[in-house]
Amino acid sequence: MGETVLVTGGAGYIGALLCDELLQSGREVRVLDSLLHGQEDVAADLEAKGVQVHRADMRDAEARERAMSGADAVVHLAAIVGDPACALDPELSNEVNVGGAQAVVADAQRLGVGRLVFASTCSNYGRMADPTVPITEEGELAPVSLYAEQKVGIEQALLGGDFGDLKPTCLRFATVYGVAPRMRFDLTVNEFTRDLWADRDLEVFGEQFWRPYVHVKDAGRAVRTVLDAPEEKVAGQVFNAGRSGENYRKLDLVQEIAKKTDSGNVSYVKRDEDPRDYKVSFDKIKAVLGFETLMTVPDGIGEIIEGLEAGLFGDPFDGKFKNIP
Ligand SMILES: NC(=O)c1ccc[n+]([C@@H]2O[C@H](COP(=O)([O-])OP(=O)(O)OC[C@H]3O[C@@H](n4cnc5c(N)ncnc54)[C@H](O)[C@@H]3O)[C@@H](O)[C@H]2O)c1
C-alpha cells in the first residue's frame, strides 16, 4: 500500500496493537510517544518489528515535525488518559489533551497530511437521561469529567472546521478491555477480572450503570477500517467504535467473570463518584464502514484470566498498569 502512518501514543494500550494492525496492512508505521508509563519494552518491541519510534513529547514542536514529515495519515492517541489522571493534574491534561491535540492538527495540516483519526470516547455521552435507549452519534453529549470535556472540545473543533486537504475523523471508543503489550488494569473489565481472580475484595459502585465495551484489538481494527475506507465516507465524520450487543451493566460484568472464576468477593456500595451511565448504538460504523468487532467481553475475560494464570504480567498489581500513581 506504501502509505506512512504516524501514531501518536503508539506505545500505549491501544497504540501498540494498532501498530501491529497497520504493519499487517502493509503500511509504514511511525510512533511519537513520550513513554509516560515507562513502556521502553513496548517501544523496543515495536522497533524490532520495523516501526520508527520517536521517543519524545508531542508538545515538542521539533519532535512533532520530525515524526510527521512525509506521513500520509496521523492517528492521534497520545493523551493523559482517563478521568482520574486528568483530575489529578488538570493543567497538564489541558496542555497535553487540548494544546497538544491542537498542535498535532495544525502541523498535520501544514505538513500536507491527508487524514487524521482522533481517538475520542463514548464517555462524551456522560450521564444519559434514559440510559436504556442506545444513543447514536447524533445524541446529546453530556460529559461529566474534565477528560471528556477536553475530548468533546477537540471533536467539535475537528467536526466543525475546514482543514483544507486534511480530512479528520473522530472515533468514540467504547471502554476498552483485553490483553495488550502495554497492559492497563485500571479499566473496568480488566480490573474486575484481575481482582476477582486474585481473590480480592472488590467494591463495586453504580452496579446498574450501563457502559459499552470494546476489545483492544477491535479498537485498532476500527482505526484501520477508517484508514482503509474511501475518503468521502469518513471525512468530517464521527463514529462510535464498538458493537451494539456489547453494552453491559457493572453487575453483568461481575456475573460474566463469576462464570470463569469462583474466587473473590464482591460488595455493592453507594458512591457519588463517576456517574457515567450510557448505552451506545454502534449501528453507524457497521452500516457505513461494514465494521464488526471480533471479540466479546466474555472472550476478553477468558483471555485476561489465561494471561494471569500464565504469569504474563508479573505482578498484575504493579503501578505501571495504571494511569495514575
Ligand atoms: N482505553 C480506553 O478505554 C479508551 C476509551 C476511549 C478512548 N480512549 C482514547 O484512546 C487513546 C489511547 O488510550 P490508551 O488506553 O491506549 O491509553 P494509554 O495511556 O495506554 O496511551 C496513551 C499514550 O500516550 C502517551 N503520551 C502521553 N502523553 C504524551 C505526550 N505528551 N507526548 C507523547 N506521548 C504521550 C503515553 O506514553 C501512552 O503511550 C487516548 O486518546 C484515550 O483517550 C481510550
Quick structural overview:
The chain is an alpha/beta fold and 325 residues long.
Element-level helix/strand string: EHEHEHEHHEHEEHEEHHEEHEHH
Bound molecules: nicotinamide-adenine-dinucleotide
How many E-type strands? Answer: 12
> Which word captures the global form?
globular
CATH architecture descriptor text of the largest domain: 3-Layer(aba) Sandwich
The residue ranges in which pLDDT falls below 50 over 5 or more consecutive positions are: none
Going by CATH, the homologous superfamily of the largest domain would be: NAD(P)-binding Rossmann-like Domain
Distance between the termini: 41 Å
Number of domains: 2
Strand order, main sheet: write it out. 3-2-1-4-5-6-10
Characterize the biggest β-sheet: 7 strands, parallel
Remind me, CATH topology of the largest domain?
Rossmann fold
Jot down its keywords.
single chain; 325 residues; alpha/beta; Rossmann fold; UDP-galactose 4-epimerase, domain 1; 12 helices; globular; binds nicotinamide-adenine-dinucleotide
